[in-house]
Amino acid sequence: MSSHDEYSSDDESIIEGSNTQLGFVDVPIDEEVTIEDTILGGEPVWLHPQSFPDEKLITCKNCGNKMALYLQAFSPFGDEFHDRVIYIFGCLNTKTCSYKDGSIRCIRGISKDPIKMEELEKEQQREIQNELDQKLQLENKKKLRDELTKDLFGSGKADNPFSKNTDNPFSNPFASPFKSEPKQPEVKAETKTYASVTAETIPPVTKKEIVKYELPSYPGYFVFVEKEKFKKQGLDPELEKYKDLIDNNSINEEDVGPSSKVNLNPQQSKIANMLDDKFFETFSNTVQYNPGQVLRFDLGGKPLLYNGKDKVAKAFTTSPFNIPAPAINPSSSRQFELQLMPKTIIDLERDEINIMDGMSWGTIIVCTDVEDYVPPEYFDENHVAYVEEYCGVQWEESV
Fold first, then answer.
1. Torsion angle, CA of 1/362/21/16, rounded to 10 degrees?
2. Is the sign of the CA dihedral 11, 17, 21, 27 positive or negative?
3. Which domain of life does this protein belong to (predicted)?
């Protein structure tokens, strides 16, 4: 059931959430994917067919194998006209590489094709002009209505709207309502397009060797995005991954107390620790309103922490966030952009879910440069560049 099915437009129990946008799995990929699509799994679409990221960026830092795509998210940046995509990759060797840094990585792709950027600028200008034209039409209609009303009812005696008073342009309803004014000499102001203004910032063309490669992949799905809404959904499907553990290791309330945890087996301890974490409780309570979410997006906002105990949690429970500045732009800082949710695992692994040997993360948090900067020398002859960004992984508690 999609999020669209979960809500009715006139349902009074729906509460608008924050500025967070949620992503939900739509349909399996059965047509060509573009860079403007957001997808889960499948094969990545690069910003240019001849521009691949450096292999080092999509290689697991532990086993050295190429990683599979988790998410490709089209993510425009503010008022900028360049194309921008966030990619998240994960190592398939979950049994040996899970819980290790570098087994899940994120890269940010930027395309500053001057032709495409000018097209985007012109499209925006057309949209703005259409809005201005519509506003002007409404203002003219209002002005015309006000003038007619004033002439008909403003004086002490009733005026004849059909009189031959040529000084009144509104005297004849069949005449043009506007007087012909003498044309003033047109003064053309010097205008510059976005492309010309930013010409100096367009990266120089750098000839680079084209290195193509294939990546392993999961089943692929299109993702649709909509604003977060809240409506109670009952039992938390995010605990579905632990269903077998919960069913086979039922825990009494008295078992969860700190003094009694020593008597629990490892699997029971895992569940007890999670249920005793206020961050996990908040995570579960928030997710149960929209159990189908695979993605949360809120540029400049705050992530939803899966637990409050690991190094990732400590980085985001300070103000400002204690996350490293971009190595390529050390004077800048990073901000939260998006995170992947546990439902992703269910969609990617489907019938092959293995609690012990499958994916074992709770959430993947991505933070990006607040300036969206890429060094000019990183761009190739197709005006495309890829850089690695911060990827904080909150793993499930191991047993």
1. 80
2. negative
3. Eukaryota
